[in-house]
Amino acid sequence: MGAPRANLPFGDIFLIGAAVATLKLVFRQVFVVTRDKTSLLDLGVEIPEDEHPLQGPLVGVVRGLTASDVALPLAICHTSAPH
């Protein structure tokens, strides 16, 4: 594919925008963890950068969980980018 899947068109918006919009309907906090903030559009959510890029998706999940201030984070939505 050669490009981040998060930025693929999905109807009138991008895949990551659709995921964020859906999650914001249900959750008080939504984060998008990425290895490179500049690759994402303005999503209207906090975008913490992965502290250990290229170490797999679990490291990104941990980064998102540590960024949250809620007692019980509830949802994880993952899109991957090819290297």
Helix content: 25-40%
Gyration radius, in Å: 12 Å
Rounded average pLDDT:
80
User: What class would the helix/strand composition place it in?
Assistant: mainly alpha
End-to-end C-alpha gap: 10 Å
Number of domains: 1
Total beta-strand segments: 2
Major sheet description: 2 strands, antiparallel
From the spread of the alpha carbons, the general shape counts as globular
Secondary structure tally, helices: 2
What percentage of the residues does DSSP assign to strands (E)? under 5%
The largest beta-sheet arranges its strands as 1-2
* Low-pLDDT residue spans: none
SSE sequence, one letter per element: EEHH
Provide a quick synopsis of the model.
The protein is mostly helical and 83 residues long.
Report on this model:
The protein has one domain. The protein has 83 residues and is mainly alpha-helical. 28% of the residues lie in helices and 5% in strands. A two-stranded antiparallel ribbon has the order 1-2. The model has no long low-confidence stretch (mean pLDDT 80). The protein has 2 helices and 2 strands. The longest helix is centred in the N-terminal third of the chain and has 12 residues.
